[in-house]
């Protein structure tokens, strides 16, 4: 019907409105009501265009990764009172969308001779306080020089990457370096659980010795079960989605981009919905926990 009214509006200078309405079988009162609402429609269209521009700016700042929930949360953080359904509609109408996750290959190679630690997590990827439960894993980034391996430890209370290491190998020393970093900067409590899969790096004597010296407790999921280390797997899927699955020209470039993603964007800029605190970055979640404990 809007097209009919628009046609009458365009032709009314050459033909009378009454004639056009009779010809097209519409009521004149309906046409005049549509005409009166034209300013409102134009204002809404302009407002949607302005909102689309704000959404695009946020999407670019998020490295083209945010979907509707996080874009809506970021708009609210910036003081914009806007309905989530409107954000979804504006994005849908203009084809604005974030990245999509892809499946990743596993690096897990179990050491059949090693006796794995018990599973102290039991798929409960929640922690009341930072520094009490960590999950770790290894992934790889393809470069023209060969693989760059990345090991990370995430704090389950904040989902902050508290420790990581990168190298051209995935021997035990890689995960040892990552857990040392986590212990140095993560404020880990004595007896903090460090959960991983049963890969040979995590069941090695070198890693176990380091865990013992740091006063931590080791935990391992079952071999071949992604669900037993789902929080770490989810982080890898997110990382691959948001930095892309391309081949870097060299390890130094891949290392720089992984560092920038973890330190500049993920820990300090990327919003995540906390069940109590709402949408916060991982570092803000840690600060909120610390403030709550102090209070």
TrEMBL record:
Biased composition (Basic and acidic residues): 108-123
Signal peptide: none
Pfam (any one): rve
Region (Disordered): 93-123
Residues of the Integrase catalytic domain: 126-290
InterPro entries assigned to the protein according to its UniProt record, in alphabetical order: HTH-like_dom (IPR025948), Integrase_cat-core (IPR001584), RNaseH-like_sf (IPR012337), RNaseH_sf (IPR036397), Transpos_IS3 (IPR048020), Transposase_IS3/IS150/IS904 (IPR050900)
Official protein name in the record: IS3 family transposase
Gene3D superfamilies in UniProt: Ribonuclease H-like superfamily/Ribonuclease H
PANTHER family found in the cross-reference section: TRANSPOSASE INSF FOR INSERTION SEQUENCE IS3B-RELATED, TRANSPOSASE INSO FOR INSERTION SEQUENCE ELEMENT IS911B-RELATED
SUPFAM superfamilies: Ribonuclease H-like
Species of the source: Streptomyces kaempferi
Source organism, top-level taxon: Bacteria
Function (record text): Involved in the transposition of the insertion sequence.
């Amino acid at each position: 019907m809007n097209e009919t009214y628009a046609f009458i509006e365009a032709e009314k200078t050459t033909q009378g409105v009454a004639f056009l309405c009779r010809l097209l079988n519409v009521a004149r009162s309906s046409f005049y009501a549509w005409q009166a609402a034209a300013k409102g429609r134009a204002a809404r269209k302009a407002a949607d265009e302005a909102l689309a521009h704000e959404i695009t700016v946020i999407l670019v700042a998020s490295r083209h990764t945010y979907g509707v929930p996080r874009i809506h949360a970021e708009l609210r953080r910036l003081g914009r009172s806007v309905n989530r359904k409107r954000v979804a509609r504006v994005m849908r109408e203009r084809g604005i969308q974030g990245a999509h996750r892809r499946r990743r290959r596993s690096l897990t190679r179990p050491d059949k001779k090693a006796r794995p630690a018990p599973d102290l997590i039991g798929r409960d990827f929640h922690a009341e306080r930072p520094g009490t439960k960590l999950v770790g894993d290894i992934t790889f980034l393809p470069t023209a020089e060969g693989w760059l391996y990345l090991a990370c430890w995430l704090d389950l209370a904040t989902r902050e990457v508290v420790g990581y290491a990168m190298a051209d190998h995935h021997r035990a020393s890689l995960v040892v370096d990552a857990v040392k970093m986590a212990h140095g900067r993560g404020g880990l409590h004595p007896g903090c659980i460090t959960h991983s899969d049963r890969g040979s790096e995590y069941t090695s004597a070198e890693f176990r010795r380091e865990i013992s010296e740091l006063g931590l407790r080791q935990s391992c999921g079952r071999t071949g079960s992604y669900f037993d280390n789902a929080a770490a797997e989810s982080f890898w899927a997110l990382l691959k989605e948001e930095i892309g699955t391309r081949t870097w020209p060299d390890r130094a470039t891949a290392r720089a981009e992984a560092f920038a993603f973890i330190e500049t964007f993920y820990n300090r800029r990327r919003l995540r919905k906390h069940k109590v605190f709402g949408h916060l970055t991982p570092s803000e979640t840690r600060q909120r926990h610390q403030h709550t404990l102090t209070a």
